[in-house]
Structure formats: C-alpha cells, structure tokens
Amino acid sequence: MATIHRNGHPHLTPNWYRYDGKVLTFVTRKDRLKYLNLQRDNRISVCIYDPPVASNYVVISGTATCDDQDIWDEARRIIARYRAPDQVDDYLVRWKTEPRVLITGPRSALRPGHPGDGKRVEHSPRRP
What we know:
Distance between the termini: 21 Å
Number of helices: 3
Shape: globular
Order of helices and strands: EEEEHEEEHHEEE
Number of strands: 10
Helix content: 10-25%
C-alpha cells in the first residue's frame, strides 16, 4: 500500500488485504502512519502480484475511505486469508483490543499486464 507522507514522498507498507472482485479492504491501527496519511490525503495505490511471476500483477489507485464502525466481519475475512482456521478467533480477539479501522478502496485498477498499457477498470465502492 502506498500513501502520501506529509513531506510529499510515498509511504509504502505491506498489508494483509481482501479483494472480493470489486472492493479492496484492509484493516490497520489508527496509530499507524498509513492511517494518519489517509486522514490528511486519501489517495492510495496498491500493487498486488501473484508469485512467483512478478509480471502477474495489478495496480489499483484512487481514493480510500476509513471506517471504525462495524468492521469485525470484514476483519475476520481478512485474517482468514492469512492464518489457519484455528488461529482466526485469537487474532480477532486481539485486534478488538486495539484501535482498528477498516480501509476501503481504491476504486480503479490498471489491468494485469504491462504497466504502461493504460487499460483502466473502474469499480464502485461497496462493503460486502
């Protein structure tokens, strides 16, 4: 995930995420720089690739929204992508003790392939 630092430089972080075919979601803490950056400037870019071939990727850029209400169902789905089923509940319990927020977006994606091909796909934001 790339956000814009207050000095104008990109701020890049790896993140757990979920993409349902239309909406990209992340959960982070409110004390993380990426969240603070998005509060000031909600522009975001994400590059997701399918290992092991680095040329299998998609770049998604646009604006993001942050919400701290009713985030736990989506948080569970995100955790479940990265942890064994018997670990999901423990992660969720811990996350609920932290100041967490759901980041939704961005809206458009550059289709997989060559980064300069200019093919863009628009998505409407919605929360599953």
